[in-house]
Fold MarR family transcriptional regulator.
Amino acid sequence: MPEGDADPNQPSASPGLPAGPGDAALMEPFLHKPGFLLARVDQISTALFAGAPGGTTLRQAEFLMLVGALGPMPQIRLANASGMDTSTTAYVVANLESRGLVERAPCPDDRRRSQVSLTRAGGNLLREVTPRYAELQQQLGAPLAEADRGRLRTMLHTLGADARGPGPIWTPACDPAGGVLDKALSFLARRALQVFQAQFVADATHLNLTLRQFSLLFLLSQRETLTQVAFARLFGLDPSTCGVIMRSLAGRGLIGSASSHEDRRERVFTITPAGRQALAEVHPLAHRSEMAVLRGFAPAEQAILIRQLQAVVKTHSPALRFPGAIAAL
């Protein structure tokens, strides 16, 4: 039976796995977590933007639009305007430079710094990418009424611009009424996601876990065993990303693996005692980090944020190759 047609009240149909909570029931708690929903919106944005002119990625498009709107700028200012850490900014700029879309030169007022500017080719591509980016924002916001879209943008902007957390600095560089990124749902969702991820990592520093690693430990504590493909289908990630998460935890002894009885080429993963101990320690920290990010929102506002993100995820998840078990939406 195709995953989307599965009975949410039945155990997982993945072959070779022991019975456990039904997929939809197991994933239901995640559907009320802003961090999970924002990560899913980011996946959706990437999928919807695929095939953009010149094979441009979302981050590349945003860099081109920032430099096009604000003019040549120091690379560090571009990092702040895009909410990126300096190493990621350098990587994206180097990629654009290798394609002849931007160029770097010493800053006139500080030659130790690089100034980034558009080339003619970059300007030409920008004219093609800009309407595609605007179309993406319309697609993302389509499930919401106009007033709700505005409210969601405002809440995400508030989360992303909060400088009290440990995430990369974001200095909104344009007028919110007509700025490049200030009102783009795809960017604002990713920026808010950065804030949730950074806060979690900061609160759980001693455990050295990411949100996705924590999620896998939780799922294995409930399902007992998962294969890489089963994790992908359940959680809604591509199998290669799932493989990275699983290998990292296995390398630290937090999960174990053995060959599947049905297919010796496939590995079956289980949580270890050390993994259960780590999960017990990190679980309250995950809640604390979420509350730290949402500290400026009343409970009613938090509920509105979650409902609006759920509406976007429910509408657009079919665009993903691995939409996950989100039937509860």
Observations:
- The longest strand covers residues 110-118.
- The domain at 44-203 is CATH 1.10.10.10 (Arc Repressor Mutant, subunit A).
- The chain has 13 helices and six strands.
- Residues 131 and 247 are 40 Å apart (CA to CA).
